[in-house]
Amino acid sequence: MKNSKNTKKVSWKSFNGLNVLIIFSVVVFLFFPREGARVYRVVGQNILFMLEIIPPIFLLLGLFDVWVSREKVTQHLGDRSGLKGTGISIALGALAAGPLYAAFPIAEVMLRKGTSLRNIFLFIGAWSTMKIPMLLFELQSLGARFALTRYAMSFLGIFCIAFFLDKLLLSEDKQNIIKRLKE
Amino acid sequence: MDPSTLILYGVVIGCLLISFSKDRKKTREVLIKAWKSFFMILPAFLTVIFIMGFVVVFIPEKTIAVYIGERSGFIGYLISSLVGAITLIPGFVAFPMAKMLLDNGAGIAQMAVFISTLMMVGVVTAPLEASFFGWKATIGRNLIAYFYSFVVGYVVWMVVRI
User: Fold this and answer.
1) I want to staple A126 with a disulfide (CB 3.0 to 4.6 A). Which of A130, B23, B38, B72 is the partner?
2) CB proximity A142 to B under 8 Å
3) What is the spatial distance between Cα A107 and Cα A121, in angstroms, rounded to a whole number?
4) For position A102, what pLDDT does the model report?
5) CB–CB of B54 and A39 under 8 A?
6) b/e for A78-90, b at 16 or more Cβ within 10 A?
7) Is the dihedral angle over the CA atoms B19, B23, B26, B31 positive or is it negative?
8) Are residue B128 and residue B66 in the same domain, yes or no?
9) Do B29 and B105 belong to one domain?
10) Contact B90/A42, CB-based, under 8 Å?
11) What is the chain B residue with the closest CA to A54?
């Protein structure tokens, strides 16, 4: 439902910074040919490496975005949703696309539909650090051990965060949050 | 191409075929979305790869190692965690960045701390977060996430080192 959020215009203007860098690199190349050539080699290698692994990941992002309707699932995430609710909240965050601040408005909608605060925090946590397409990209660029360990630790972490936030916030704070989000 | 990349291509192409057989219009939408999000990230992506190119060529490995290397100690953690907490680098840009730094002297724990804080802590977006959840929850979440990131860094370092 938040798919229409992608309203930022795709334009060539955003390449301006890059133009400056390319001109700079030419200047560097003219004055320090050896270092300049090395810069081009490093940049070229990395672009090639990334082009190899990026297309499937972005296609996956598109697939998630179009086929996973968040609205239908959020109805089963209330206070009594138990383990299933926990699982769905995390899955929703992990299947998401976009920066963390895009998750806040979605969390708002979820809360309005009766999702418990604990599940909201789990959703925010999963969104921030457990996104599947990101994991795939991390696996490819930084290796399986690095990526999987970090993923497992993140999984633990979002439970810790949800648990401590639950303890930290008095019931009056919680009421305030719910009231604010429902306004 | 490495086998895991091939598997990834296989899975995604399979999913696309299923999607196409179920709904052509939606599949078109999928392709457009994929292209758009790729194009949107492209400038930042190329810019960072270029800057990192300069960094790894002109800053000696030794210097990178002193500040964020395996033996950089507390300073290394502090620098990587602060950069991660404050900046708004998209993950798709951060991973190649971390990889290039790792190849050129940066430490594993430091890069894990950087990525973890980058994703879980948002100083710049805190006001926005607070407008939804209030300051108490926002500060609580960010602080816990910040300190937890050091644990993540330590554990990742241990596992990768084995």
Assistant:
1) A130
2) yes
3) 9
4) 78
5) yes
6) eeebeeebbebbb
7) positive
8) yes
9) no
10) no
11) B38
- Mean pLDDT across the stretch A130-145? 91
Phi (first) and psi of residue A23, to 5 degrees: -60, -45
Whether residues B27 and B67 fall in one domain? no
Q: Are residues B141 and B104 in the same domain?
A: yes
Which tokens go with B80? 């990587």
Report yes or no on B144 lying in a domain.
yes
> What is the residue-wise DSSP string for A22-78?
HHHHHHHHHH-HHHHHHHHHHHHHHHHHHHHHHHHHHHHHHHHHHH--HHHHHTT-S
Question: From the list A10, A42, A100, which residue is nearest B40 (CB)?
Answer: A10
Q: How far apart are CA B119 and CA B124, in angstroms?
A: 12
Is residue A182 helix, strand or coil? Answer: helix
User: Do B151 and B73 share a structural domain?
Assistant: yes
Reported as a single tens digit per residue, the pLDDT across B50-94 is 888 898 888 888 899 999 999 998 899 999 999 999 988 888 889
Domain membership flag for residue B108: yes
Asked whether residue B17 falls in the same domain as residue B86, the answer is no
ipTM of this model?
0.84
Residue B34 to chain A, least CA–CA distance (Å): 5
Extended beta strands in chain B, E state: none
> Hey, how many other C-beta atoms are within 10 angstroms of the C-beta on A161?
23
Token digits for A91? 């899955």
Select from A58, A41, A148, A17 the least CA-distant residue to B39.
A58
The domain limits of chain A are 11-54, 68-182
- The Cα–Cα gap between A72 and B45 comes to 34
In a domain, B52, yes or no: no
Does residue B54 form part of some domain? no
Contact B144 A165 (CB under 8 A): yes
Q: Which domain holds residue B3?
A: 1-41
The two tokens of residue A63 are 């697939």
Contact between chains at A145 and B144 (C-beta distance less than 8 A): no
Task: Return the residue of A nearest to B1 by Cα.
Answer: A52
